[in-house]
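Quick start: read one record
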Amino acid sequence: MRCTRLLAASVLAFACASLHAQDLSQVCHATSSYDLTVQQDQLIFDRTEPAPTRVVIASGTLQTDGQAVGINAEDQDRLALFQRNVLALVPRVKRVINHGVDLAMQAVQQEADGMNLDADTRAELQRRLQAHAADLHQRVAASQSTHDWHGDAANQYANQVIGDIAPLLASAMGQQAISAAMSGDLQQAAALRDQAANLTSGFQPRLQQRLQALRPEIQALCPDIQRLAELQEGLRASNGRPLNLVQIGQ
């Protein structure tokens, strides 16, 4: 059923990204054209275009597109502080993501609670949701790059969740519909149809509303992201262009 597929897919709406870019843009007015990979001793920013397409910051040094950039002592200090601040920000971002995962899974559970599922199906759904939440938490903990949450990677995980949850819910709702039809209870059959339509049209807005609880946590990140933008000001790549690793709009 389309509603069950939507329900499962929507779990990932805010959970399968290092931090939802639209939220950062809307709440902190922060954007970046780069992906970020965090390693023990360096930060790697990369993008397809324009140049510089690869920026490496490591212990106060700067390299862009394979070329070392000469910088003065003050800029070295700023780069070192930029790197430390990014490293300190990463676990805070991950805490927000993990909270989003929990809220999303709770939203799915709440929607399922309104389906009048049998006890066995409810228990199995809870078990599967908990397993997916634990798996997502582990993935977030292990992830050191925004590349981990792009396109195919996110879609592949979404399909795994969909393939696990959707058949369970579809089977339960289908059995209810069959039972209602066989008993001649047209009113119940119509109610099931309306319930499916409500899930299809209403779940995503309800999920978004629930995830508004994350907004204060995201807002708490904004001053530190603003500080990163300030620390990079005036720094240029080997081709003379500003780095603009983080951009703050209005």
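The radius of gyration is 23 Å.
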